[in-house]
Amino acid sequence: MKRLQAKRCNMPGGLSKRFIFANNADALYPLTVDIIEHVKQEANPHETAILKLKMVLIELLTNAIKHSGNSETLIEVSTDAHCIKLKKTDNGDTFAIECDQIKLEWPLPGKHHAGRIISIYGDDSCTLKGNVENNCQINFFIEEHTDTETMDNAITSLPEHFGLMIVTRACNSFMYEFDIDTCTNNFIATINIGGE
Amino acid sequence: MILTTTTNKSALIARLEAKEANLTVADDFKEELVALIDKGNRFIVVNFENVVYVDSSFLGALVSSLKYAIPNQADIVIAGLNKDIFALFQLIRLDKAFKIYTTANEAAASKTL
Contacts of residue B91 in chain A, CB cutoff 8 Å? Predict the structure, then answer.
């Protein structure tokens, strides 16, 4: 099995700008375009990075409409010479995750120690998983099951939820963090400026 | 209506009228596509030429419709994707699940080959 492990990207001194999303579908694409234009001006990323940024923004904002539960979501955008970093913050429902068919609460229970792997969803070809960093953070990654190029017999096993899968595949790192002090949810995604 | 339909030879071309194929239209899209299958259409080309972007909710509805089509001896193929949407299909490997054509006419012609 092939495992795509996320890499972290540190951004000391990176530029940062905050955008407010009204959790309204009509505002989704205009905000996506605004943020892309901001990133282009600040960091001049490779066109592949821009494509990935667009995919990630659309999914983070869709996730906000579906799950944030409040009237506004904060999108913080940072850039430096190497990375684009997106941080989505809201105080809606915590990230829903099940382990052994039990819905987990945040902070995660004591047995969910660093290094524990949680399966989130998948199909015959891959599984989206979370690597527990600590009881308030998981890092998403994708575990590939096969190298097959065909899905002729696998259509019935295809998932019908793609949001986190899209973001995880498009990003160089993607994590969920529950801020225990403010009881807010943070999804943090980084994309390499070069698009690789 | 999310879809407007025309026939081309033995294919039914279902053109998406929404520019933003997102969670606000996903359920209606699936409902209309399933209804077209229920009416006996066996080769449906979903034409995305009007669509600017697609979100995961819409992709979920598309996959769910394909799962409905298969046991009903129907096929759903895709046409008219812009390069960003095509890249999204590739990213999550939906290009392996759906036949994808450049244009709706090309897709319709494939049915007669």
Answer: 55, 166, 169-170
A59 Cβ under 8 Å from any chain B Cβ: yes
- Give the closest of A65, A66, A125 to B93, CB-based: A125
CB atoms within 10 A of CB B32: 17
ipTM: 0.94
Task: Measure the CA–CA gap between A14 and A45, rounded to whole angstroms.
Answer: 14
Residue B82 CB burial class (10 angstroms; 0-12, 13-18, ≥19): middle
Give the distance from residue A162's alpha carbon to the nearest chain B alpha carbon, in angstroms: 5
Contact present, B61 and B26 (Cβ < 8 Å):
yes
Chain B residues near residue A163 by CB distance under 8 angstroms: 55-57
pLDDT in tens, B88-103: 999 999 999 999 999 9
Interface with A, mutate which of B34, B52, B96, B99 (most A CBs under 10 A): B96
Is residue A60 within 8 A of residue A86, CB to CB? The reply is: yes
Residue of A59, A149, A170 with shortest CB distance to B55: A59
Locate the chain B residue with the closest alpha carbon to A160: B60
In Å, what is the CA distance from B107 to each residue of A70, B8, B13, B21, B112? 43, 10, 9, 21, 10
Per-residue tens of pLDDT for chain B, all 113 residues: 899 999 988 999 999 999 999 999 999 999 999 999 999 999 999 999 999 999 999 999 999 999 999 999 999 999 999 999 999 999 999 999 999 999 999 999 998 65
Q: Which residue of A has its CA nearest to B52?
A: A29
| Nearest beta carbon to residue B91 from set A55, A156, A158 | A55
CA distances from A49 to A53, A134, A174, B110 (A): 6, 29, 15, 34
pLDDT in tens, A21-65: 999 999 999 999 999 999 999 999 999 999 999 999 999 999 999
Strand-strand pairing, A102-103 and A126-134: unpaired
